[in-house]
Amino acid sequence: MTSTATATAAGTIDIGGDLTVNRMGYGAMRITGPGIWGEPPDREQAKAALRRALELDVNFIDTADSYGPEVSENLIARALYPYSADIVIATKGGLVRPGAEVWNRDARPEHLRKACDASLKRLRRESLDLYQLHAPDPNVPLEDSIGELVRLQSEGKIRHIGVSNVSVAELRRCERLTPIVSVQNRYNLEERHSDEVLTYCESKAIAFLPWAPLGFGKHTQASGASGALARVAERHGITVGQTALAWLLARSPVMLPIPGTGSIEHLEQNVAAAAVRFTAQDMQELR
Fold first, then answer.
1. CATH topology of domain 7-217+253-261
2. Can you tell me the distance from the alpha carbon of 62 to that of 167, in angstroms, rounded to the nearest whole number?
3. Is pLDDT above 70 for 205?
4. Residue extents of the structural domains in the chain
5. 8 A C-beta contact, residue 119 and residue 93
6. Does the annotation count 26 as an active-site position?
7. Which position among 26, 67, 131, 200 bears the catalytic label?
8. Is the pTM of this model over 0.85?
9. Which residue of 29, 92, 235, 245 is surrounded by the most CB atoms within 10 Å?
10. Among residues 132, 143, 203, which one has the least CA distance to residue 165?
11. From the CB of residue 112, how many other CB atoms can be counted at a distance below 10 Å?
12. What is the largest CA-CA distance in the chain?
Protein backbone atom coordinates (compact mmCIF):
# COMPACT_ATOMS: atom_id res chain seq x y z
CA MET A 1 0.00 0.00 0.00
CA THR A 2 1.22 3.52 -0.76
CA SER A 3 1.84 6.03 2.00
CA THR A 4 -0.88 8.47 0.93
CA ALA A 5 -3.26 7.49 3.75
CA THR A 6 -3.06 9.38 7.03
CA ALA A 7 -4.08 8.54 10.58
CA THR A 8 -7.48 10.18 10.04
CA ALA A 9 -8.52 7.11 8.03
CA ALA A 10 -8.64 5.12 11.28
CA GLY A 11 -11.35 7.31 12.75
CA THR A 12 -11.15 8.82 16.21
CA ILE A 13 -11.39 7.79 19.83
CA ASP A 14 -12.22 9.86 22.90
CA ILE A 15 -9.90 9.62 25.88
CA GLY A 16 -11.31 10.76 29.17
CA GLY A 17 -14.23 12.47 27.48
CA ASP A 18 -12.28 15.57 26.46
CA LEU A 19 -9.36 14.36 24.34
CA THR A 20 -10.20 13.23 20.82
CA VAL A 21 -7.39 11.65 18.81
CA ASN A 22 -7.01 9.70 15.60
CA ARG A 23 -7.03 5.97 16.27
CA MET A 24 -3.57 5.34 14.85
CA GLY A 25 -0.94 6.56 17.28
CA TYR A 26 2.83 6.51 17.46
CA GLY A 27 4.98 4.79 20.06
CA ALA A 28 8.19 6.69 20.72
CA MET A 29 10.14 3.83 22.31
CA ARG A 30 12.10 2.97 19.17
CA ILE A 31 13.58 6.44 18.62
CA THR A 32 16.18 5.63 21.28
CA GLY A 33 19.36 3.59 20.95
CA PRO A 34 19.62 -0.20 20.59
CA GLY A 35 17.94 -2.03 23.44
CA ILE A 36 15.93 1.14 24.21
CA TRP A 37 19.13 2.44 25.77
CA GLY A 38 20.93 5.71 25.11
CA GLU A 39 20.72 8.09 22.19
CA PRO A 40 19.61 6.91 18.73
CA PRO A 41 22.27 6.35 16.06
CA ASP A 42 20.91 9.36 14.17
CA ARG A 43 19.23 11.94 16.37
CA GLU A 44 18.10 14.10 13.44
CA GLN A 45 16.41 11.15 11.78
CA ALA A 46 14.59 10.37 15.02
CA LYS A 47 13.31 13.93 15.22
CA ALA A 48 12.35 13.82 11.54
CA ALA A 49 10.27 10.69 12.20
CA LEU A 50 8.40 12.47 14.98
CA ARG A 51 7.66 15.43 12.72
CA ARG A 52 6.58 13.14 9.90
CA ALA A 53 4.14 11.43 12.23
CA LEU A 54 2.39 14.74 12.79
CA GLU A 55 2.35 15.43 9.04
CA LEU A 56 0.50 12.11 8.69
CA ASP A 57 -2.13 13.37 11.15
CA VAL A 58 -0.92 11.24 14.04
CA ASN A 59 -1.90 13.25 17.10
CA PHE A 60 -1.34 10.69 19.87
CA ILE A 61 2.25 9.99 20.90
CA ASP A 62 3.12 7.50 23.63
CA THR A 63 6.41 7.53 25.51
CA ALA A 64 7.89 6.87 28.97
CA ASP A 65 10.66 8.21 31.17
CA SER A 66 12.34 4.78 31.00
CA TYR A 67 12.82 4.90 27.22
CA GLY A 68 16.49 5.74 26.97
CA PRO A 69 16.04 6.47 29.86
CA GLU A 70 14.83 10.06 29.36
CA VAL A 71 15.96 10.08 25.72
CA SER A 72 12.53 9.65 24.12
CA GLU A 73 10.89 12.44 26.11
CA ASN A 74 13.78 14.80 25.39
CA LEU A 75 13.65 14.09 21.66
CA ILE A 76 9.89 14.66 21.55
CA ALA A 77 10.31 18.09 23.10
CA ARG A 78 13.24 19.01 20.84
CA ALA A 79 11.38 17.92 17.72
CA LEU A 80 7.84 19.10 18.42
CA TYR A 81 7.89 21.96 20.93
CA PRO A 82 6.00 24.28 20.80
CA TYR A 83 3.26 21.70 20.41
CA SER A 84 0.22 22.03 18.19
CA ALA A 85 -3.05 22.35 20.07
CA ASP A 86 -4.41 18.96 19.06
CA ILE A 87 -1.43 16.77 19.94
CA VAL A 88 -1.78 14.45 22.94
CA ILE A 89 1.40 13.18 24.57
CA ALA A 90 1.07 10.25 26.92
CA THR A 91 3.96 9.23 29.12
CA LYS A 92 4.57 6.67 31.84
CA GLY A 93 6.39 6.32 35.14
CA GLY A 94 7.13 3.41 37.43
CA LEU A 95 10.02 1.62 35.73
CA VAL A 96 13.69 2.43 36.31
CA ARG A 97 16.68 1.57 34.14
CA PRO A 98 19.92 1.14 36.08
CA GLY A 99 21.45 -0.45 33.00
CA ALA A 100 20.79 -1.71 29.49
CA GLU A 101 18.28 -4.58 29.31
CA VAL A 102 17.25 -3.88 32.92
CA TRP A 103 13.67 -2.83 33.66
CA ASN A 104 12.98 -2.61 37.39
CA ARG A 105 9.61 -1.68 38.86
CA ASP A 106 9.44 1.25 41.26
CA ALA A 107 5.92 2.51 41.90
CA ARG A 108 6.58 4.02 45.32
CA PRO A 109 4.64 7.28 45.70
CA GLU A 110 7.81 9.30 46.24
CA HIS A 111 9.35 7.90 43.07
CA LEU A 112 6.24 8.51 40.97
CA ARG A 113 6.12 12.13 42.13
CA LYS A 114 9.74 12.71 41.17
CA ALA A 115 9.23 10.90 37.86
CA CYS A 116 6.16 12.96 36.99
CA ASP A 117 7.92 16.23 37.79
CA ALA A 118 10.91 15.20 35.68
CA SER A 119 8.68 14.23 32.73
CA LEU A 120 6.93 17.58 32.92
CA LYS A 121 10.30 19.33 32.72
CA ARG A 122 11.65 17.21 29.87
CA LEU A 123 8.47 17.48 27.81
CA ARG A 124 8.19 21.22 28.58
CA ARG A 125 4.61 20.90 29.76
CA GLU A 126 2.72 22.41 32.66
CA SER A 127 0.37 19.41 32.75
CA LEU A 128 0.66 15.92 31.28
CA ASP A 129 -2.27 14.96 29.05
CA LEU A 130 -2.12 11.31 30.10
CA TYR A 131 0.13 9.85 32.75
CA GLN A 132 0.24 6.08 33.01
CA LEU A 133 1.52 3.81 35.77
CA HIS A 134 3.99 1.73 33.77
CA ALA A 135 3.40 -1.41 35.83
CA PRO A 136 2.13 -2.39 39.28
CA ASP A 137 4.96 -2.85 41.76
CA PRO A 138 4.69 -6.06 43.79
CA ASN A 139 6.47 -4.30 46.66
CA VAL A 140 4.01 -1.39 46.79
CA PRO A 141 0.25 -1.54 47.33
CA LEU A 142 -1.41 -0.60 44.07
CA GLU A 143 -3.66 1.81 45.94
CA ASP A 144 -0.60 3.72 47.18
CA SER A 145 0.74 4.12 43.64
CA ILE A 146 -2.56 5.23 42.13
CA GLY A 147 -3.29 7.40 45.14
CA GLU A 148 -0.16 9.42 44.42
CA LEU A 149 -1.22 9.90 40.79
CA VAL A 150 -4.59 11.15 42.06
CA ARG A 151 -2.77 13.69 44.25
CA LEU A 152 -0.65 14.81 41.31
CA GLN A 153 -3.83 15.17 39.28
CA SER A 154 -5.43 17.31 41.98
CA GLU A 155 -2.35 19.56 41.81
CA GLY A 156 -2.89 20.05 38.07
CA LYS A 157 0.21 18.12 36.99
CA ILE A 158 -1.78 15.30 35.36
CA ARG A 159 -4.92 15.66 33.26
CA HIS A 160 -5.87 11.99 32.97
CA ILE A 161 -4.63 8.76 34.55
CA GLY A 162 -3.95 5.49 32.75
CA VAL A 163 -2.41 2.16 33.70
CA SER A 164 -0.25 -0.41 31.96
CA ASN A 165 0.42 -4.12 32.32
CA VAL A 166 -2.63 -4.79 34.48
CA SER A 167 -5.23 -7.50 34.97
CA VAL A 168 -8.97 -6.85 35.19
CA ALA A 169 -8.80 -7.26 38.95
CA GLU A 170 -6.02 -4.67 39.20
CA LEU A 171 -7.87 -2.32 36.88
CA ARG A 172 -10.95 -2.51 39.09
CA ARG A 173 -8.85 -1.72 42.16
CA CYS A 174 -7.56 1.39 40.40
CA GLU A 175 -11.07 2.44 39.42
CA ARG A 176 -12.14 2.47 43.05
CA LEU A 177 -9.82 5.44 43.50
CA THR A 178 -10.18 7.37 40.26
CA PRO A 179 -11.45 7.12 36.67
CA ILE A 180 -8.96 5.23 34.48
CA VAL A 181 -9.08 6.42 30.87
CA SER A 182 -6.58 4.07 29.23
CA VAL A 183 -4.96 0.67 29.58
CA GLN A 184 -1.72 -0.26 27.86
CA ASN A 185 -1.10 -4.01 27.75
CA ARG A 186 0.89 -6.27 25.45
CA TYR A 187 -1.41 -7.39 22.66
CA ASN A 188 -1.11 -8.46 19.03
CA LEU A 189 -2.33 -11.12 16.62
CA GLU A 190 -0.62 -13.96 18.44
CA GLU A 191 -0.49 -12.61 21.99
CA ARG A 192 -4.05 -12.18 23.19
CA HIS A 193 -3.64 -12.85 26.90
CA SER A 194 -5.35 -9.51 27.59
CA ASP A 195 -8.59 -10.37 25.78
CA GLU A 196 -10.47 -10.20 29.09
CA VAL A 197 -8.97 -6.78 29.82
CA LEU A 198 -9.88 -5.58 26.33
CA THR A 199 -13.48 -6.74 26.80
CA TYR A 200 -13.65 -4.87 30.09
CA CYS A 201 -12.25 -1.72 28.44
CA GLU A 202 -14.93 -1.97 25.76
CA SER A 203 -17.64 -2.13 28.41
CA LYS A 204 -16.31 1.03 30.08
CA ALA A 205 -15.20 2.96 26.95
CA ILE A 206 -11.59 2.86 28.15
CA ALA A 207 -8.95 3.29 25.44
CA PHE A 208 -6.84 0.16 24.96
CA LEU A 209 -3.26 0.77 23.79
CA PRO A 210 -1.66 -2.49 22.60
CA TRP A 211 2.08 -2.47 23.12
CA ALA A 212 4.22 -4.68 20.89
CA PRO A 213 1.41 -4.46 18.30
CA LEU A 214 3.68 -6.05 15.70
CA GLY A 215 5.05 -8.74 18.00
CA PHE A 216 8.47 -7.07 18.26
CA GLY A 217 8.80 -7.21 14.48
CA LYS A 218 7.59 -10.79 14.06
CA HIS A 219 4.54 -9.56 12.19
CA THR A 220 6.51 -7.37 9.81
CA GLN A 221 8.35 -10.15 8.01
CA ALA A 222 6.61 -12.30 5.41
CA SER A 223 8.85 -15.24 6.39
CA GLY A 224 7.55 -15.12 9.95
CA ALA A 225 3.90 -14.59 9.11
CA SER A 226 1.27 -17.22 9.69
CA GLY A 227 -0.53 -18.66 6.70
CA ALA A 228 -3.67 -16.64 7.44
CA LEU A 229 -1.75 -13.40 7.89
CA ALA A 230 0.09 -13.89 4.61
CA ARG A 231 -3.11 -14.79 2.74
CA VAL A 232 -5.01 -11.74 3.95
CA ALA A 233 -2.05 -9.48 3.20
CA GLU A 234 -1.80 -10.82 -0.35
CA ARG A 235 -5.53 -10.47 -0.90
CA HIS A 236 -5.42 -6.78 0.01
CA GLY A 237 -2.08 -6.06 -1.62
CA ILE A 238 -0.52 -4.84 1.64
CA THR A 239 2.39 -5.88 3.84
CA VAL A 240 1.99 -8.38 6.66
CA GLY A 241 2.78 -5.57 9.10
CA GLN A 242 -0.04 -3.45 7.74
CA THR A 243 -2.31 -6.47 7.98
CA ALA A 244 -1.45 -6.98 11.65
CA LEU A 245 -2.13 -3.32 12.44
CA ALA A 246 -5.35 -3.26 10.45
CA TRP A 247 -6.51 -6.33 12.37
CA LEU A 248 -6.00 -4.49 15.65
CA LEU A 249 -8.07 -1.54 14.43
CA ALA A 250 -10.83 -3.89 13.28
CA ARG A 251 -10.65 -5.97 16.47
CA SER A 252 -12.18 -3.31 18.73
CA PRO A 253 -13.43 0.29 18.57
CA VAL A 254 -11.46 1.14 21.73
CA MET A 255 -8.17 -0.08 20.23
CA LEU A 256 -5.53 2.63 19.76
CA PRO A 257 -2.44 1.04 18.18
CA ILE A 258 0.88 2.74 18.88
CA PRO A 259 3.42 1.12 16.52
CA GLY A 260 6.89 2.55 16.96
CA THR A 261 9.76 3.03 14.56
CA GLY A 262 12.60 5.42 13.90
CA SER A 263 12.27 4.87 10.13
CA ILE A 264 10.13 7.30 8.15
CA GLU A 265 9.47 4.62 5.53
CA HIS A 266 8.17 2.19 8.14
CA LEU A 267 6.20 4.96 9.82
CA GLU A 268 4.41 5.74 6.57
CA GLN A 269 3.64 2.07 6.02
CA ASN A 270 2.27 1.72 9.54
CA VAL A 271 0.03 4.76 9.27
CA ALA A 272 -1.25 3.64 5.86
CA ALA A 273 -2.77 0.60 7.60
CA ALA A 274 -5.39 3.01 8.95
CA ALA A 275 -7.12 2.94 5.56
CA VAL A 276 -7.41 -0.86 5.31
CA ARG A 277 -10.92 -2.28 5.62
CA PHE A 278 -11.30 -5.97 6.35
CA THR A 279 -14.21 -8.19 5.38
CA ALA A 280 -15.90 -10.70 7.66
CA GLN A 281 -13.91 -13.39 5.84
CA ASP A 282 -10.64 -11.63 6.64
CA MET A 283 -11.50 -11.42 10.32
CA GLN A 284 -12.61 -15.03 10.38
CA GLU A 285 -9.29 -16.17 8.94
CA LEU A 286 -7.35 -14.09 11.47
CA ARG A 287 -9.41 -15.01 14.52
1. TIM Barrel (3.20.20)
2. 21
3. yes
4. 7-217+253-261
5. yes
6. no
7. 67
8. yes
9. 245
10. 132
11. 26
12. 53
